UniProtKB/TrEMBL annotation:
UniProt-recorded name of the protein: TGF-beta family profile domain-containing protein
Source organism superkingdom: Eukaryota
GO molecular function terms listed in the Swiss-Prot or TrEMBL record: cytokine activity; growth factor activity
GO cellular component, one term: extracellular space
Keyword Oxidoreductase: no
Length: 367
């Protein structure tokens, strides 16, 4: 996969003497192929208005990746995609609706969480004070029959302290799986607040921030952890041969190019700038990353510093001794690859964190 990315980046560079039409066509084709590497058909449009991504998603990105998007620990995420959805009920107090149309059919729902921000409790009249209440989350089955047993289904319930404020997270995985299998079944969620014995509390001493009345950072949110099945070189991207791309010709003195070929196999920088590509409008983080690339010779005899495979060592010997025609010396290629993470707005302006395997050359060797 990394080889495909490197060829695409070379194609995006400017040829020595391109025709305007030819250069535009090559760039469009290269960008199309690069989108395929990132699992997209078209780039999502930038949000119509400035939008602040949920702080939870920003914090998750910073936990999973460094400033360049390179994964710190591949085991932190469950699956390779995290999607966030904001409530679409326009401020109803205890009813929530999340539109999941952007979830792809091939994505496996691993975990789904409802995130609600608990507000500071109201001052209560009289001597009676409650320290805890019971919060229940229901999947709405029939909006017109909410008071009947068949109108809703209990998903989660627990005691919540009435002291302080902060985020409360409820697992609602099965409901989301139902919704992704049948979109028409998504009638939203209902949250109730009751006393310790299940008695109604009127007015309820506990309230959650709504999607309309409170700051962007406190809005109700659904978070999905999913896996789209994409793993490394198994990505369904058509192979791109060098002959298909117009690669810039080397310039400079001949002896300088020859000297470059004689340098030992090692890793070199390869900057990917999303602003130059034209993707900065929808990608939140990172602004770009260093993919690195491998360059240099693999001369006989191959030392341990060349990190050769046994096959490369044998090939090097056969090439040096001319024991067989048409056998070249081993190639300098990545022998360790790292994943990167993108935090971006999708087509529906939801914020997504996605991890892509085999995107950064971690080290180089002779293979």
């Amino acid at each position: 996969m990394l080889g495909t990315v490197l060829l695409l980046l070379l194609a995006l560079a400017k040829p020595a003497c391109p025709s305007p039409a030819g250069a535009a066509s090559r760039r469009a084709e290269a960008l199309k192929r690069l989108l395929e590497v990132f699992g997209m058909e078209d780039p999502p449009p930038p949000p119509a208005h400035f939008k602040q991504p949920p702080q939870y998603m920003v914090d998750l990105f910073n936990t999973v990746a460094n400033a360049d998007g390179v994964t710190k620990n591949p085991d932190i995420l469950e699956g390779n995609t995290v999607r966030s959805f904001l409530d679409k009920t326009h401020g109803e107090k205890m009813r929530f609706l999340f539109i999941l149309s952007s979830v792809a059919k091939n994505e496996k729902i691993l975990t789904a969480e409802l995130h609600l921000f608990r507000l500071w409790p109201r001052a209560t009249d009289g001597p009676k004070r409650h320290h805890f209440c019971q919060v229940s989350v229901y999947q709405v089955l029939d909006k017109s029959e909410l008071d009947t047993p068949g109108g809703k289904k209990l998903l989660a319930a627990r005691l919540v302290s009435l002291q302080g404020s902060g985020w409360e997270v409820f697992a609602i995985t099965q409901a989301v799986r139902d919704w992704t299998e049948d979109e028409s079944s998504n009638q939203g969620l209902l949250v109730t607040v009751q006393g310790l014995g299940g008695s109604p509390l009127d007015p309820p001493p506990l309230q959650f921030a709504s999607s309309r009345d409170h700051h962007e950072s406190k809005k109700p949110m659904l978070v999905l952890f999913t896996d789209d099945g994409r793993r490394g070189a198994s990505l369904p991207v058509a192979p791109i041969l060098p002959a298909q791309l117009s690669v810039p010709k080397l310039t400079g003195p001949r002896n300088a190019r020859s000297l470059d070929r004689l340098q030992p196999c090692q890793r070199h920088p390869l900057s990917v700038d999303f602003e130059e590509i034209g993707w900065s409008g929808w990608i939140i983080s990172p602004r770009g990353y260093n993919a690195y690339h491998c360059k240099g010779s693999c001369p006989f005899p191959l030392g341990e510093n060349m990190r050769p495979t046994n096959h490369a060592t044998v090939q090097s010997i056969i090439n040096a001794l001319k024991l067989s025609e048409g056998v070249s010396s081993p190639c300098c290629v990545p022998d360790k690859l790292y994943s990167i993470n993108l935090l971006y707005f999708d087509d529906d302006e939801n914020v997504v964190l996605k991890q892509y395997d085999d995107m950064v050359a971690g080290s180089c060797g002779c293979h």
